[in-house]
Amino acid sequence: MSEEHVKKFMSSVDIKARIRAAEKFSEVFNNVVKAVLNGEEPKLIIPKRTLSNTIYDKERGLLLLGPATFERSFLDVKEARKFMQTLLMAKIIYDALINNEYPTIRDLFYRGKHSIRYRDHKGRIEEENTWDEQKESDAVLRDIEVLVNLLREEMLILSKEKGKVVGDMRIRSGDDVIDLSKMGHGAYAIEPTPDLIEFIDVNAEFVLVVEKDAVFQQLHRAGFWRKYKAILVTSAGQPDRATRRFVRRLNEELKLPIYILTDADPYGWYIYSVFRIGSITLSYESERLATPKAKFLGVSMTDIFGDKNKKPYLSEAERRNFIIKAKKTDIKRAQELLNYEWFKTEKWTKEINIFLQKQSKLEIEALTGKGLHFLMDTYIPTKIQTQDFIE
Amino acid sequence: MSVAEKFRSISPAEFFYRNKEIAGFANPARALYQSVRELVENALDATDAHGIFPDIAISIERDQNKAYVYRITVKDNGIGIPENYIPDAFGRVLFSSKYVLRQTRGLFGLGAKMVVLYGQITVGEPAEIVSATINSKKIYKYKIMIDIKENKPIVLERSWWQNKTGWHGTMVKVAVEGDWSKARQKILEYIKRTAIVSPYANIVFRSPDGEIKIYQRVANILPPPPREAKPHPHGVDLEMLKAMISETKAQTLIEFLSDEFQGVGRVLAERFISTYGFDPNINPKNLSKDDLEKLVRALKEFSEFRKPRADHLSPIGSELIKIGLNTILKPEFTDAITRKPVVYEGHSMVVEVGIAYGGAIEPLEEPMLLRFANKIPLLYDEKSDVAWKVVSENIDWSYYDIVFPAPIAILVHVCGTKIPYKGVGKESIAEVPVLEHEIEEGVRHVARSLKLYLAKKQKEEEMARKAITLIKYIPEIARALTVFAKANPEPIQAEVLESKLFDLVKNRFGDSLKNISSPRDVVLSLE
Q1: CATH number, domain at B129?
Q2: Mean pLDDT, chain A, whole residue set
Q3: How many independent structural domains does chain B possess?
Q4: Around Cβ A11, how many Cβ atoms within 10 Å?
Q5: How confident is the model at residue B371 (pLDDT cuts 50, 70, 90)?
Q6: Number of domains forming the structure of chain A
Q7: Is A110 a catalytic residue?
Q8: pLDDT tens per residue across span B70-90
Q9: How many angstroms separate the CA atoms of B239 and B254, rounded?
Q10: The domain boundary residue, chosen from A134, A155, A176
């Protein structure tokens, strides 16, 4: 794309982001060039992305990357392939930045994948791919994120849009203003680079994030967000980075409380914890993606079974109909969660133990099965009003 | 009745005719093989044992009319046979009367005579001999048969011509009954193995089918020629003692002992005589049968004689063994060792062991064993040979990092004035402890050296593998780096970065990169 085209059709926000990222790349990798020209061992010093180098910052409620680093040297036989992959990936990203492109991680994989034909030490001719699976190129991309200290969004790398939002709010995306209250039956798909979104104005009191897209649509069309002055978000399953960053900004910049509604099972709980604290594999981005103040609204085990101070939302007969027996993998996952530092609170321990005892789970849809208006006008408002949530 | 006693009661020629399987002429195939062997060994003994680099031409022709009849011709450039001795050398079967000992190839002291005799019996043609000694003005040609009953040569034709070229050597042509198709494998193998231990020889072989095998001389050194040595007292038996006494010029026992034996001087002879109470001044020719038997026992028993000498032996030498193995087997590694002499029943022996590994050698389930006794290849009865016991039972090859199937050949050469053969065929060596020990130590020595070689090779390969693991990524890395090098005032070429990266690898892996001078020697274009 020529400069002219860029200026004419591209958003000024993107162009600035590109220049910033390209400069960072030049700085880091020019050092490698210098080392090679000076006859020094070329190496990259990369923060470790391992569980042991993942620190749970209790005060801030975040999973953070620790101080440990490792050296990836060209002259280290075990690291040489990764060294090559890292530089290959850096080159592809840098080329894309310079050429005003928006690669996806799949694009990066294909752009870098090719064969190296070589003669081995016994004279046999062999072929090796720069990388074989996207898993490999994805891992190298994560290394580059921590190495140059830029998230992929900041490098203008796109991913599939998954998260959606509606509500009484106006934003600027690119050079356009979008009114999130005028999306019809649809919703605004949260762009992969949420940092480039500008919040213009908002008229809402809280944010409700629902795991399930179907429940999001039901609440949207029933006018939930208008009636209760809410921003309604769905992650459609495991939240992607853009949705998490968007939710974080709603909380941090607009000071809106965040309530998260998931299935009542270990996977639902983990979705909540990804929103709140971050994930282990991506702890380096938690600082920017996690929302430590996000609250788990439900569905909780006590909502189903009640406890000594609380009447359950479901009758005996409804429980019998809606509850699903937990699978072995659910039980195993729940036991794992008990070991995570950030689940070791009184409320979560109780929650998980009820689950282990009852060996039962429940989907949000079960509550709409009791009636959409039960969910919308009874369950959610009551939970918020009585502050019946877990942090 | 001992063989020698039997020998006196009938003509020696007749005796061997009746016992031809003992001399290796049991059937047409074996006889053809044995005939070639006897003539080739004579040819080699006439050359290398006299400091001459051998040129040997062997041919076997099939008779046009008669089945199973072959004419063997062996020609050498040796010392030749004095004209007046030619008829006896080929026409009279004799036990050698000499009592000096010498390491020779000939197994029975019969050599060509047995071939002539066998040929005469089976085909009936006279043997043809052409010979000239060194500096002889004439070349002589004889046609000879043997009078079996009388054991004497019959000269059918004798002629001579001027030796204009100064040629010396011997050519023998004998027609024998044989079976080439059954003997072919063994004869080819015999010649090949002979070439292994005589890389200083030119050997040309033409088979009845017209195929020609040429083994070129590749070494310009000869093993030391074997020299004659007097018998050691520990190695003498009654027959030999009698023969020695009949030939000696010594007038007294003490003179006889100190003059005719090795390891015995005047002082030791005196001590020996006084220890056993012999009369020092008795003429040995006057000793009674009882005295002789007592003397033999005492000579074997007395422990103070000096050890038998070995400097008269002719080992091949580790250098020639390595050259031979390298040339014929084309392996990637060879080593060889000549062990120190040892003594067996009054005779000294030297064991030599060679090893060849890899290269053109086929991997086999067990080591390929190449056995030699006094430079003669032993092809039969392998499994009953002491060397086989050593390589297959005594040695744990896994200790030397050899896992079968493996491409490995072991050469074992035993040389001495008396080889402890097993059985009458003289094709395998007996399990004599001192010999077994020598062979085992020799095999262990060369196996250790192979182990070291393999370890070094593996290490080098590992280094090369590691270096290539890095080098193969250089073009990719250089290409990526040029993108970031753009900011420099002058553009940097990928080639510059490639060679800089290659230098880094070279500095780290140095020696293992002998054959690689640039990353482009490793990374190939995909087109």
Answers
A1: 3.30.565.10
A2: 89
A3: 4
A4: 14
A5: very high
A6: 2
A7: yes
A8: 999 999 999 999 998 888 888
A9: 20
A10: A155
Interface with B, mutate which of A83, A118, A131 (most B CBs under 10 A):
A118
- Which CATH number fits the domain that encloses residue A86? 1.10.10.10
Tell whether A95 lies on the interface with B, counting CB pairs under 8 A.
yes
Judge residue B211's burial from the number of C-beta atoms within 10 Å of its C-beta, 0-12 exposed, 13-18 middle, 19 or more buried.
Answer: exposed
Residues B40 and B187 in one domain: yes
Kindly state whether residues A116 and A187 are assigned to the same domain.
no
B425 and B377 in contact (C-beta within 8 Å)? no
The answer to whether B472 contacts A118, with C-beta atoms less than 8 Å apart, is: yes
Stated length of chain A? 391
Residue A118 and residue A171 in one domain: no
Q: Which of A110, A270, A284, A313 is catalytic?
A: A110
The pLDDT of residue B102 is: 64
* Per-residue model confidence (pLDDT) at position B100: 56
Which tens digit of pLDDT belongs to each residue from A59-117? 777 777 888 999 999 999 999 999 999 999 999 999 999 998 899 999 999 999 999 99
Chain A, residues 63-82, CB within 8 A of chain B, namely 74-75, 77, 80-81
Partners of B205 in the β-ladder? B58, B213
Question: Which of B465, B481, B496 lies closest to A121 in CB terms?
Answer: B465
In a mutational test of the A interface, the residue from B457, B458, B470, B518 whose CB has the highest number of chain A CBs within 10 Å is B470
Chain A CB contacts of B457 under 8 Å are none
pLDDT for B108 equals: 43
pLDDT at position A369 is 77
Q: Is residue A391 part of a domain?
A: no
Q: At what angle do helices B266-276 and B253-260 cross, to 10 degrees?
A: 130
What integer pLDDT is reported at residue B2 of this predicted model?
41
Query: Chain B contact for A94, CB < 8 A?
Result: yes
Specify burial of residue A135 (Cβ count, 10 A radius: 0-12, 13-18, 19+): exposed
Query: Distance (Å) from the C-alpha of residue A37 to the closest C-alpha of chain B?
Result: 7
